[in-house]
């Protein structure tokens, strides 16, 4: 794929970041591959000045309020393998909404990095796929997940960086395999909405 690609579902182009994932798009499914021991994380117990580990990302810059929705299916092979919706504000401020094998059951997990990364599990998923949604209004972001793409479970709301930085954030897709030999994830049912959800906690 070229350095800049366009998906028909999105009003902005995407560019690859981090290690090569050999991203492909076919029949409505975006597929990416993470290599062995690839992750995007800054351990809370480590030095915040050390370089963050990295994993393949495909990101673009939406304008204004938005929702980015996808169904992700992950080829789990090892603990912490994941397909991810990723948010990048600065080199030390970014966040992940993951369907992750954590460590032995598929789980909705989130990471928000402000110098160091935090790490929180939300709920266990039945199977190897789930729906993920990241939303923005102004300087605020929200994460939701769903088993069917209809009823959404609120996961967290947070701010990153200044309002100006948040409004210029990059968003998109990531694949990780922190301790494994590699992982493949497919993203389909991709949808973009130029709005903030009507209710964060009412399932809509």
Terminal CA distance reads 35 Å
Whole-number tally of structural domains: 1
CATH topology: Jelly Rolls
Question: Cα-atom Rg, whole angstroms?
Answer: 15 Å
Name the structural class. mainly beta
Region (Disordered): 37-58
InterPro entries: ConA-like_dom_sf, DUF1349
Protein name: DUF1349 domain-containing protein
Pfam family, one: DUF1349
Supply the key terms:
7-stranded antiparallel sheet; mainly beta; 1 helix; 8-stranded antiparallel sheet; 15 strands; Jelly Rolls; 204 residues
Structure commentary:
The structure is a single chain. The protein has 204 residues and is an all-beta fold. The protein has a single domain (15-193), classed as Sandwich (Jelly Rolls), CATH 2.60.120. 2% of the residues lie in helices and 50% in strands. The strands form two sheets. Strands 1, 4, 6, 7, 8, 9, 10 and 14 form an eight-stranded antiparallel β-sheet that branches. The protein has a seven-stranded antiparallel β-sheet with strand order 2-3-15-5-11-12-13. The model has no long low-confidence stretch (mean pLDDT 95). Residues 37-58 are annotated as: Disordered. Pfam families: DUF1349. It comes from Streptomyces formicae. This is DUF1349 domain-containing protein.
